[in-house]
């Protein structure tokens, strides 16, 4: 008797499960149909929405970009100024070409002496890297004299020679005596 009772209870449970499952499936189908129906918009509401959009006019009007060149280049990107956290060079570099370095020594050859007497011109051997402006500034700083112009040439031995023409208010002979050339 016990075993038949157990079998009947099992059978009842199975029936209940099947019934519950069928009921659940039916409900799911009903919900899916309702959701599908709600997903389709009402044609009247759709028409009203379109009418409002037409009445309000376009929200924006896209303008066509006028191209002036036949080649396309990508736009320039933002270039920020450098803002280092610490200086890469600890100290500012020393000026290696100061006025003592520029003017090496005055020439005391016969042709140089002739230039001093005849042309009011001093002749110096200068650094190979020095240009006319730097030579002019160095002569002004060292000997406190105004120069009219500077001519330079590079000698065959690789040194640079500078002919420093003085202004008429300075006499090259007096300056040469002061320097100690003569």
TrEMBL record:
One of its GO terms (molecular function) is structural constituent of ribosome. Pfam families: Ribosomal_L23, Ribosomal_L23eN. PROSITE patterns: RIBOSOMAL_L23. One of its GO terms (cellular component) is ribonucleoprotein complex. InterPro entries: Ribosomal_uL23, Ribosomal_uL23-like, Ribosomal_uL23_CS, Ribosomal_uL23_N. Keywords: Ribonucleoprotein, Ribosomal protein, RNA-binding, rRNA-binding. One of its GO terms (biological process) is translation. Residues 43-91 form the Large ribosomal subunit protein uL23 N-terminal domain. Binds to 23S rRNA. Binds to a specific region on the 26S rRNA. NCBIfam families: PRK14548.1, uL23_arch. Belongs to the universal ribosomal protein uL23 family. This is Large ribosomal subunit protein uL23 N-terminal domain-containing protein. It comes from Populus tomentosa.
